[in-house]
Here is the input.
Amino acid sequence: MITVFGGIGIFLIGMSMLTNGLKEIAGEALKKWLNKITRGPMSSLFTGLFMTIIMQSSTATTLLTVGFVSAGLISFVQSIGVIIGANIGSTSTGWLISLLGFKISLQSLSLPIIGLGAFMQLIAPYNIKKYGGVLVGFGLLFLGIDLLQQGMNSAQALIPFDLVKTDLFFSILLLIVIGIVMTIIMQASSAAMAATLAALFSGAIDYEQAAYLVIGQNIGTTATAIFAAIGSSIAAKRTAITHLLFNVITAIIVTIFFKYILLFTESITIWMTGSIDETLGLAIFHTLFSMIGALLFFPFIRPFASLLEKLLPEKANALTRNLDSNLVSVPSAALEVCYTALLQMMKQLTRAMLEFIESRKVTPSFEKKVAEVEEAIDITRKFLDLVQSNSSKLRNKHIDILHVLDHLSRLTKVLREQQKFEAIKFQKTIMNQVHETMFEVEVLFDEKEKIFEVEKIFEQTSEKIAAERKRRRNEYFERTVENATQIQVAFSKVESILWIDRLVYHYWRATARMAMFCSFEKNNDSQNQPLQK
Here is the structure.
């Protein structure tokens, strides 16, 4: 058994090195390819298939897909095609092992490959070293299979698989569960498949037992994507559930028609080799499993996606929950709910700024608040695209709302800049003033009529900081000329105070436009002339 565990370990290390090396060589190209090629379900399927064959890891493809869906770079429908293709592509490892792994002396083949790869990593130029890693991984993979084969020969007496009869439901269920556990523990369906093929070749298990293990391994391989989706977006959770349902439903159907599928695989092996080759038959069975699932799911990708979208709806952004599309036909009401949403966004950004200044670092809460505002800005922008203001009064209010949205968008970008850390480091006095201002206005955002007071506070603060920025900028440069301050430090200080200036300016201009919006509710005199600043 020690040889078996060692073989599995070496196989996993080899697979990891092979996958990481291939990702390093083709990683960025694959990401761009995934983003460009996945236009329709069919192209998505072939993208997932080829990516998995190239990287030799369906897990890597699935995790990459979950990340892309979570970032909004590909749609949920496109991700289903990629997942189906990745399942088919993952069967390539079984073919490689069954066609080569038991036909030649793997140890005599693997050791020279490992040696060549190791020398390439040590002495080759930097851009060649990664190819050495791929060779080492490839060699270790074959060495692991060789050790597995040796270990399984001696482990037959220790593993009582002959007691597990495949004509009993409980035994079938036990084999499937063992397959699931194997893949979860090894964190690689390829390693589980290699162990199963080695056990089959050595006679530790029979063909039917191996096939049931493969069914379980296909279910177990979904665990990584499920773990990756925890805490991710709803779209990422949908993708992980799709992977799970695809393999579970396919497993049920394959189990029901198990005997017929085995007869079919035997016929294929006889046609290919002239005799029944059980290891090749298992690789064919693995491929048929994924192919059957693809044939079942592919025609229903869009209805299936719609069903999951209903079962797992996107959580509404609390900042924009009142932006009902039914209101767009009433422009005055639509603009009012937009104003309320923007007011709440301003308050949330103010809270985020208070947290940042108080903690002097970017906290998860800060990131969440800013991200929610960014999402809310995008939702509001799409909502306003549907609003048409006809009267001159509504047009002016509509323009004010757009200005506020623009300043808010710029404000979130300012909050993402790295200069905020330099502001905390070099401008403590001014940041304390900003903190006092934010603390003062936070509660005022709850009352609509207080926006005029908020606008005045920010105007005064912005003017003070602008004057301080001009004074300090000259002072920093003068100290640099006198060799009292290093140039890099002076530039960092200038950047930090410019960041504070931009921050407060966008707050002021946003609240000024909000005040103008509210002024239309009170009167229609000279106050409703649009500001030019």
